[in-house]
Recover the amino acids of this structure.
């Protein structure tokens, strides 16, 4: 890497373009040819704030795929989160990665592969009550006195209810549309991309975001997602996400949990990588990106898959792919980011 990388101000458009591609045709980005882009400027604002004010940072990730044989966390989320954690740590921040028991093996191994300390990964309890107790205890600990950011990367969150739509700017006609499109049994549940309720396979980590937002209003939150069902998508109206998704279950998918900034990417790992590259460059430390080469990224992904710790969430196959994308397609944005800041 060059000791004098280009100014990040000159690279924002390119950085955003690198992650705003939709080869898997998830819909949120592909639809931008017909409708305005979602969350314009959020990547820049989130990165700038994280780089300037980041101290103690909580990351959360892990999307469990119960239908895989054997079941495991998906390949999108843990690798990008671990890379972001490694970069933020190199920049002097105190980083923890929060996950649940089902995704713990994948997340811990990913963190280990990126050289993070064992205590970086924190496995949260399974129930909402226990998570609420953990969060409040953690917030009262001197160790988290300087908590500055909570970042969710490819972490599923619950869907809307009519009451949630009533608290937004959605007009009454949209609330009627929602009640027609979504049956009550699907209210306030986590759904996968196929519209199936997956609450029993995912701990309600979204409660961390809600409690921190309520009790530490100075802490900023960032959501990174690609499909509409992730924490952070609640920053967008239900109707805005719904009209961009395809398929008969599109009405069930949108997550109601909002964050201060929402980074929309074709693959969530790309959003995490962009935050990492942007923060490093914003702090004039693009050199910390040098060791995360394309070759080493492929090997880490292969290691997770070979150990049956991570599976492609779209194909449900144990292959070194992400969201159905072959590795050479998946890694192109990261190659572009590294070239951009050389």
């Amino acid at each position: 890497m060059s000791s004098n990388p280009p100014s990040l101000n000159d690279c924002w458009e390119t950085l955003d373009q690198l992650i705003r591609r939709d080869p898997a045709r998830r819909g949120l980005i592909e639809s931008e040819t017909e409708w305005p882009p979602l969350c314009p400027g959020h990547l820049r604002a989130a990165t700038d704030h994280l780089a300037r004010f980041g101290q103690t940072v909580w990351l959360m990730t892990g999307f469990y795929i119960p239908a895989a044989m054997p079941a495991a966390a998906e390949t999108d989320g843990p690798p990008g989160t671990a890379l972001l954690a490694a970069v933020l740590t190199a920049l002097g921040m105190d980083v923890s990665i929060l996950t649940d028991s089902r995704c713990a093996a994948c997340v811990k191994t990913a963190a280990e592969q990126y050289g993070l300390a064992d205590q970086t990964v924190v496995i949260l309890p399974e129930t909402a009550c226990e998570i609420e107790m953990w969060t409040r205890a953690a917030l009262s600990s001197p160790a988290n006195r300087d908590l500055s950011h909570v970042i969710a990367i490819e972490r599923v969150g619950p869907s809307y209810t009519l009451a949630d739509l009533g608290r937004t700017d959605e007009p009454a006609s949209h609330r009627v549309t929602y009640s027609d499109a979504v049956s009550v049994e699907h209210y306030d549940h986590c759904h996968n991309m196929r519209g199936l309720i997956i609450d029993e396979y995912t701990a309600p980590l979204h409660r961390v975001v809600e409690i921190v937002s309520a009790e530490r209003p100075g802490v900023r939150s960032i959501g990174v997602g690609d499909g509409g069902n992730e924490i952070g998508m609640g920053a967008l109206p239900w109707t805005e996400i719904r009209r961009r998704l395809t398929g008969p279950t599109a009405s069930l998918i949108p997550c109601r949990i909002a964050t201060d900034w929402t980074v929309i990417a074709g693959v969530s790992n790309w959003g995490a990588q962009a935050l990492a590259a942007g923060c490093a460059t914003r702090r004039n430390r693009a050199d910390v990106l040098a060791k995360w080469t394309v070759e080493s990224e492929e090997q880490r992904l292969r290691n997770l898959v070979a150990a049956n710790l991570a599976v492609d969430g779209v194909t449900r196959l144990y292959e070194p792919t992400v969201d159905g994308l072959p590795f050479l397609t998946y890694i192109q944005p990261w190659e572009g980011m590294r070239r951009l800041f050389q």
